[in-house]
Specification:
Length: about 200
């Protein structure tokens, strides 16, 4: 069942470049990705577009992680579930892409959440379809680990705010963006690499 869902998703997946092109083309047509269209989603997609452009230029993989990625000796597929309007996906995809570019043993594939509902339902976070979700696969498409939708400190930031205020609103979203800016993708790199290293050591 799981393998079928993954193989079906991979058949309709994007490379990072083709994902970026797809999202940009939709924005030019006044649309966002996903099965629901709204002014807000288009607005978020446009914000994310400029965020992605900036992060593609500025995100750096830390030397220690670069070294670990360079030493991988088994093929992996990194399958990411995302959408163009998702702020966390815009922060995290450029990091994952930079990491994947370092190793010829990592093949990065991106799929859209709304087009892969059954797959998404296998990787819920507290019962919700939170994205981005990274699914780490071996060369036979078996699931080794999954990660997301946010690095742990960012997850805690949102969870604590929601517990205190009952909502996730604009002020905490701004705090979250500041956290990402300050962190420079380092926590995400460390958390993903810890999953990879664990798998390699098994």
């Amino acid at each position: 069942m799981m393998k079928n869902l993954i193989e079906k998703a991979l058949e309709n997946s994007f490379s990072y470049i083709s994902y970026r092109e797809h999202v940009s083309k939709l924005i030019q047509e006044g649309k966002s990705t996903g099965h629901t269209q709204s002014e807000d989603l288009l607005h978020y997609s446009e914000l994310n577009e400029s965020r992605l452009k900036r992060l593609d230029k500025t995100i750096k993989v830390v030397p220690e992680i670069e070294n670990q990625l360079s030493n991988l000796s088994k093929k992996h597929i990194w399958l990411v579930i995302a959408e163009g309007w998702c702020g966390d996906a815009a922060q995290i995809l450029p990091i994952i892409n930079k990491m994947a570019e370092i190793s010829s043993f990592i093949d990065l594939k991106i799929v859209l959440r709304d087009d892969n509902d059954e797959l998404m339902s296998q990787f819920l976070t507290n019962g919700g379809k939170a994205i981005p979700k990274l699914i780490i696969l071996d060369e036979n498409n078996n699931v080794i680990a999954d990660w997301g939708p946010r690095p742990e400190p960012a997850r805690r930031l949102i969870a604590d705010y929601k517990a205190a205020n009952g909502v996730v609103d604009e002020p905490v979203k701004i705090e979250l963006q500041k956290w990402y800016l300050h962190d420079k993708g380092i926590t995400t790199q460390n958390e993903i690499m810890a999953l990879m290293t664990k798998e390699v050591l098994v």
